[in-house]
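We emphasize that the prediction below concerns an isolated chain of 327 residues; any contacts that depend on oligomerization or on bound cofactors are therefore not represented. The input was used exactly as deposited, without trimming of termini.
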Amino acid sequence: MIRSSHRRSIPLFIGIGSILVGLAVALNIGWIVISWQEGLLVAAGVIVTLLIIAGVVLNTIFLVREIRRNEQQDGFLNAVTHELKTPVASIRLYLETLRSREIDEATRHEFYSMMIDDTERLQATIEQVLRAGVAGSPHRAQRLHAVSLRELAEESVRVCRTRHQLSDHQLQFVNRCTAESRAMVMGDTDDLLAAMRNLLENAVKYSGKDIRIIASLQNSGSTHVQFQVSDEGVGIVSTELKRIFRRFYRIPSPASLRIKGTGLGLYIVASVAKRHGGRVFAESEGPGRGSIFTFELPVAALDLALTASVDTVARTQVSPNGQELPQ
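Result of the prediction step, given as a token string:
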């Protein structure tokens, strides 16, 4: 309801702006015709009119952008509300069932597993929102040290396979770096893991039922290393390729997939890439033809990589249902 009212407001503001610009132009022309002998006044009138026109145009653009931003924020709030309420309602239902009925041991353990899955989903949503809150902060302290992007890529792929119960064929990892030193970067381990996992989760969500994802690590020239995730999913329209990294923005998806999310995952990836002196970009041949996301970072200087302590990733204990367990 709110979203539709926002959309109806956009043509209204564009129409008002167009009418005001037209009146200003007509007034200026009339003024020139009537006062053509008063050159100085005409020149001043032209300048003032142009300033008025520029102000009206800028104001209209600002209003339209604000309406669209509010629409995206409304969509984000609706998505987050759903992502928070659904697992909470599910957990409550299981707990009430366990309290009010006699249930056999097998069913009880099944309920426990489902509640753990719902708890993980709830925790993932909360962490996503919290991370997005600090992702764009320029004052955030950076903990940069030499990190093996190969190890982080392997860890991210392993966790994604476990969480979504994917086979090696459904989610492949290919390391094309010629040497370990060519995969070393200066970065924050937690941020880099979050970015790579978000790319993998995004590929899984938009692949539908037939999941076929290839994650690869390769060098781009002698100065950069790329973590690339390609899928055979719904694809992306060319006009959306740059918008998808905005905060709260979500790619329109087919109704059959019913893809859920907060619109923060790719924004976090772009923020992490920017803070590490790298970049992220997407490629797609169009709807239904899959997509490729490339996360590119500068390679650490060789002498720095050799002298700095390499931050190896702690192998996360993962239960059969995908839960990460503390060390």
